[in-house]
Design goal:
Length: about 110
């Protein structure tokens, strides 16, 4: 069974950092295209960052230079390192498996206070 579980969210002040994790089971993270999305209160979901099986990255303009997507093959886990956080980064962040049998896990809430 394909499962994804995001964690690592919390309350952080403007300019702070957080590292989100997405633990995967039932498939191999490194063999798939994986993404982080976010959904702010009252808004639709938006893509944050994507990594494919070759390690190629795609990022939304609003996170360039601030967020970094990565993966740990041994732990079969996807990460999102977030730095220089802004109030507009407040959202539920969730990870997705974008290739083959698609899947989405429950999100983790990130709140950036000013």
């Amino acid at each position: 069974e394909v499962q994804l579980q995001a964690s690592g969210g919390g309350l952080v002040q403007v300019g702070g950092s957080l590292k989100l994790s997405c633990a995967a089971s039932g498939f191999t993270v490194s063999a798939n295209t994986m993404s982080w999305y976010r959904q702010a209160p009252g808004k639709g979901k938006e893509p944050v960052s994507t990594i494919d099986n070759n390690g190629n990255l795609a990022e939304s303009d609003f996170v360039k230079g601030r967020f970094t997507i990565s993966r740990d093959n041994a732990k079969n886990t996807l990460y999102l390192q977030m730095t220089n956080l802004k109030p507009e980064d407040t959202a539920v962040y969730f990870c997705t498996k974008d290739s083959g049998l698609k899947a989405r896990g429950p999100g983790t809430l990130v709140t950036v206070s000013s």
